[in-house]
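Work through what follows:
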Amino acid sequence: MKSISLSVFFILLCAFTHAQQSVGGTPLSFIINEIDDQEFDLHEFAPLDLYQLEQEDLLRSNEGQLELFSRYIETDLTLLNSGTFHQLDNGDRVWRLRVTAREAQAINFLYNDFHIADNSVLHIYNSDRSMVLGGFTSANNKEVGLFATGNVLGESVIIELFEPFSDFGNNIISIDKIGYVYRNAFAEVNGELRGGSDPCQVDISC
């Protein structure tokens, strides 16, 4: 497993995902027991070497470089090679994938190919359902195909796509990097908990 820090590519990505919007709403599995009761695919990643990261971060600090709070883990998770589809009685279906990064304070995702079809909705949430991002829709599609979603608290995160029958085969989700947050995942600001990222959903201190 290989981890990398921020590159120029991800600085540009923040511009691509600026003013990211979501429609809110509730993941379908929260409402329909038929979906919630089904088992689905899990991809698990071992914890990063936090001692080594601490030494690297100390060196960076001594050199006056930007403080890091996470590292990226390279991966290749798509609708075609990961996750589990569950088809509903009306022909629609829900795709879910659980990503667990052991001992991470929070997880975020970078997509190298992202396209949500006209009537589909994507949500991302943690295992205890205390935090939900989305829903993301076709309004979030970019011509370049890149996308990023911000920090979700916890070491285990579920990605859930609702795909109506009319959209079958028209959604593309390809995650090539997982952000493993090991420090300062959430800070209390003005009495509220907020994540480490602004509207671009990728904190530059990655």
About this structure: DSSP finds three helices and 13 strands in the chain. The longest strand covers residues 106-115.
